[in-house]
Amino acid sequence: MRAVVVRPPSPGAELLDVPVPELSAGTVRVAVLECGVCGTDHDIVDGKYGRAPPGSPYLILGHENLGEVRELGAGAAGFAPGDLVVATVRRGCGRCRFCHTNRSDFCETGGFTERGIGGSHGYMADEYVELPEYLVRVPPALRSIAVLLEPLSVVEKATFQGQRVLDRKEPTPGEPKVGVPRALVAGTGAIGMLAAFVLAVRGYRVTAIDRHGEDTLAAGLLRRVGARHVNVAGGTAVLGDEGYDLVIEATGSVALDFSLIDRLGPNGVLVLTGIPDAGGPAEPVAGGTLFRDVVLGNQAIVGSVNANRTYFESGLRDLAVFEDRWPGAVAQMIAGRHPIEECASVLAQRTSGTIKTVLTVRPGGAGASPP
Length: 371
Ligand code: BGC
Fold this sequence. Notes:
Elements: E1 2-7, E2 10-17, E3 28-37, H1 39-45, E4 59-60, E5 64-72, E6 84-87, E7 90-91, H2 97-100, E8 113-115, E9 119-120, E10 127-130, E11 135-138, H3 149-166, E12 182-186, H4 190-201, E13 205-210, H5 217-224, E14 228-231, E15 244-249, H6 254-261, E16 264-272, H7 287-296, E17 300-303, H8 309-325, H9 329-332, E18 334-339, H10 343-348, E19 356-360
Parallel strand pairs: 8-9, 12-13, 12-15, 13-14, 15-16, 16-17, 18-19
Antiparallel strand pairs: 1-2, 1-4, 3-5, 3-10, 3-19, 5-6, 6-11, 7-8
Helix pairs in contact: 3-4, 3-8
The protein binds beta-D-glucopyranose.
């Protein structure tokens, strides 16, 4: 079968003919329809990240996925051929309490693998085989946007974690809040845009920042969901003095990370989701002022990575809400679909201002609206 492979830490990606994975008892064979390309994929292709499975000379890339169930192995249940599915990414270490309770996103041993990223083959291939517990069924009505479910799951977790930390100041968790909470989203790639959509649905007054003007697709979509867009190419001072209750960072820029701490309001929470380069330059920081304000303002800085199945499920509910409120808006985030044969050139370029690029493995599929 065809697969997009990388050989970390060597840079580059290529389409290779690889053996079809074996369908063992209890597993499901899935025909891949399409895969999203994200910053992590670019980092792997650049040789900065990623790990092949033990004993394999290559890693099949791809973790943002949508496929169609083909075949069930003996004893596999819960799915039927033709079902649309999205697979989760992380597989637990099998040792810690988090992995034992389906929360490998909080694995504390580091012994997990991630399909298409670290230690386990991904989904940019004609087929993959997986246990039913890692597959999330997608309603056919969401066919054209479900490839965004994996990045949305990351957003679902990050916003939920942020809300949990914010809730620490409430006398009774879940009690209706007074006033409209303010959220700041840094970055208007797929994670930032999906975060703006989620937070708008959750009742936040949303501001989203990037380094572009008002004439981009992202700025237009932000207007559509009632969010404010601010170009911070000249620095975040343009935001003024307003403090935010929840800040979701989705850029991986260390300098910006520090400046966002300054944007927190009293009791505010900054959730970092962008993964910076480990070897980046040291940043000069006025740590005294910064952490003084964090302490005196009861502020919190939280990192959030990956997502377990529950966040894929809440993401599906949110995708339906987005479609209901802003029909067609999420589909616009997908800037282009390219056949898998174009993988090397698509993966070689990071396109600034593009929200999401998708590689099509197999056009169509059951219940498909044309991709
Ligand atoms: C993926 C996550 C993964 C993280 C770190 C992200 O791009 O969406 O599932 O945990 O990279 O590898």
